[in-house]
Amino acid sequence: MKDIKAPSRIEITQFPKGKRIAVTTSFDDGVTHDRRVVEAFNKWGLKGTFNLNSSFLSRKEKRSDAHLETTEISKLFEGHEVAVHTATHPLLTRLDNLQIIDEVLNDRKALEDLVGYPVRGMAYPCGVYDQRVIEVIRTLGIVYSRTCENDPRHFPAKEPLAWGSTAHMFNNDPVPVNERFEKFYGQEWMTGVFYIWGHSYEFDRSNNWKALETIFKPLSGKPDVWYCTNIELFDYEKARTQLVIAANKLSVYNPGSLTVTINVDGKLVDVKPGLKVL
């Protein structure tokens, strides 16, 4: 066999293409104001996860002026993620196990009928959960569930079904979200996930749609940022941790279905599913 020099080091990048920061967002409740958020995000290149209560969506037999139409969900959120927020938005800690199952599974199945793909993410109504709720949801095919808690070290998540975020979009502690991002991004050695959540009706309720641009546009357009949905973040993390690097560092095996980026002695290399000989 021909003598081949192995690389000195192979690193598995945290995000695709070696991006150093991931930006992700989520919005709850499936209200009509989501349309305006999606329009802006599509213009700026941002991605969102939209947590919907399927029972509240407007339909022919149950009209709602406040909530989105079932017929628009698939097209509206194309390129984004639709996730579970339970069917009717109850406080899950007040329900027995069977009712929790009904709320989550009914919502999941109804949303899957609308979007045509497996719905695997979730946000807790009002951020309310406990260990019992977590253990019930763990059996229902849900990969993660977002809380309303702020956690500077929220990813990778120690408990994906109790996932915190960077902050709510109107959180000003210690400074507004956009300023916090600029400081985070401006430190070239920093890497990690910047995750902002909220409700699109909050812009309307405060008569402050200008805040949509003030808060979110500064997060966009950065060449070394990966703009992703919540589930894309979890899927890539799983894929990168499954990568198998040969002991002699001459090949890499990717058993998953996603392309994973590695850094081979300073050169970025995409490893597609299957065997990659370096």
CATH architecture call of the largest domain? Alpha-Beta Barrel
CATH class of the largest domain: Alpha Beta
Oligomer: single chain
Order of helices and strands: EEHEHEHHEEEHEHHEHEEEEE
User: What is the approximate shape?
Assistant: globular
For the termini, the CA-CA separation is: 15 Å
CATH topology label of the largest domain: TIM Barrel
Give the tally of β-strands.
Answer: 14
Helix percent band: 25-40%
How many helices?
A: 8
> Compute the gyration radius: what is it?
20 Å
Sheet with most strands: 6 strands, parallel
Question: How much strand content do the residues show?
Answer: 15-25%
CATH homologous superfamily classification of the largest domain = Glycoside hydrolase/deacetylase
Structural class: alpha/beta
